[in-house]
Design a protein that fits this description.
Elements: H1 10-30, H2 33-40, E1 49-52, E2 57-62, E3 67-70, H3 77-80, H4 83-94
Antiparallel strand pairs: 1-2, 2-3
Length: 97
Amino acid sequence: MKEHYQKYEGEALMDLAVKENVLTQLENLRTYPVIHSRLKSNEMRLHGWVYEIETGEVVQYTPLQGDFLPLQSQFSRSAWLTAKQQERIYKGSYANS
């Protein structure tokens, strides 16, 4: 970390370390055969999120910008959940009513 982010220290360096760890874990997940095959067949998507405790904000890694951006600014819930997942969530919310 210090080699690549020499100008950062303290809290800023810690924030970068957390985000770098998320990206590293996404890379690790892609090496699992079951995940790799599902990604390739578009049955699965991986998302790298960080919860910012101080603000309560969730940021997601966006490859096009190469940065973590607020989740709300990127897409609505319906854009990242499949129709099947949305239906399951909808039905599940009324299952105990």
